[in-house]
Design goal:
Length: about 260
C-alpha cells in the first residue's frame, strides 16, 4: 500500500522568553517535518528557533533558558561582526582583499551609461560610474561592478586550480559550480560528484584557495572527515592546517555585504 505524503506545515511566530541572562526575543518556526529542537543566530544577530510542530511551549522556553549563555555570546559576536561588515560602504578609498592582499578602491564619475571596472596590482581598482547618482545608487552600482569583477576572476582562477589539482590527485568532478554561499567556502556532493565553491574564496591567498580546492576534490573519494580523508589532504598539501587556520582568523575580511 502506498504511503500518503502530507504537505509540510511551518508556522513562524515572534516570541520572547525571560532567562537568567535577561530577555531573549526569538523567531519560533514550528515544522511538521522536524524531529529535533535547534537554535541558530543569523548574520543580523536574530535568534531563530526551529522545533517539532507539537512540541510544548514550556519545553521550548526551558531549552532556550538552558542555552541562554551561549545564545547571548553568539548574539554579541554577530552584532560585532555586523558592525565590521557595515563599515564596508564601497566608497572611494575603501580597501578590499584579492588573493590575500588588500587593494584600494578608486571611484570616478563620468558621462557613461553602464560604468566600467579595471584593476592592477599596484593601484587597485578603478571604477567608472554614471554621474548624478544618489549616494545609495552610487554604492549599489559600485558594489554590483565589484561583485561582477570578483565572480569573473573566480571562474577563471578556480577553474585553473581545479584543473591542476584534479589531475594531481587523480579525480575529476562531473560538475563544478561557482556561486555565493553564506556560511561555507566549498562543498562536495559525493553522490553526483559535484563540487560547489564560494567565489569569495578568491579574496584569500592562492594557497588558501588551493586548500579549499584540494579539500573538496578529496571528498570525491572520501565523503566524510575521517582520518583517511585528512591524510589524503595532507598528502597533497602537507601544511594545509596553516591555510585552514587563515580562513578561521580572516573570515570576516572575506565577507562582502
Amino acid at each position: 500500500m502506498r504511503k500518503i505524503k502530507h504537505p509540510k506545515r511551518i508556522i513562524k511566530t515572534a516570541c520572547l522568553t525571560q532567562t537568567e541572562m535577561g530577555e531573549i526575543p526569538f523567531i519560533l518556526a514550528r515544522s511538521s517535518a522536524r524531529r529535533t529542537l535547534t537554535i541558530t543566530i543569523d548574520e543580523k544577530a536574530d535568534v531563530n528557533v526551529a522545533s517539532p510542530f507539537r512540541m510544548k511551549e514550556r519545553d521550548i522556553h526551558d531549552f532556550i533558558n538552558e542555552k541562554a549563555q551561549w545564545i547571548i555570546k553568539k548574539v554579541n559576536e554577530a552584532l560585532k561582526n555586523r558592525m565590521i561588515l557595515d563599515q564596508k560602504k564601497f566608497d572611494h578609498g575603501d580597501q578590499f582583499l584579492f588573493l590575500g592582499k588588500k587593494y584600494k578602491l578608486s571611484i570616478f564619475e563620468r558621462n557613461v551609461k553602464r560604468g566600467h571596472v579595471s584593476f592592477n596590482a599596484l593601484e587597485g581598482w578603478f571604477i567608472t560610474i554614471p554621474q548624478q547618482l544618489s549616494l545609495k545608487g552610487r554604492r549599489v552600482k559600485v558594489r554590483a561592478k565589484m561583485l561582477q569583477w570578483y565572480r569573473a576572476q573566480a571562474n577563471e582562477i578556480l577553474g585553473g586550480r581545479i584543473f591542476h589539482y584534479s589531475r594531481l590527485i587523480g579525480v575529476e568532478p562531473k560538475k563544478i559550480a561557482v556561486r555565493t554561499q553564506k556560511r561555507i567556502w566549498g562543498c562536495c556532493d559525493y553522490n553526483t560528484q559535484t563540487i560547489h565553491l564560494n567565489w569569495q574564496i578568491i579574496l584569500s591567498p592562492i594557497k588558501v584557495v588551493d586548500y579549499v580546492v584540494v579539500h573538496e576534490l578529496c571528498h570525491l573519494t572520501v565523503p566524510n572527515h575521517s582520518k583517511r580523508f585528512w591524510k589524503k589532504v595532507e598528502k597533497v598539501m602537507p601544511d594545509f592546517k596553516r591555510y585552514k587556520k587563515w580562513l578561521t582568523v580572516n573570515h570576516l575580511d572575506m565577507v562582502l555585504p
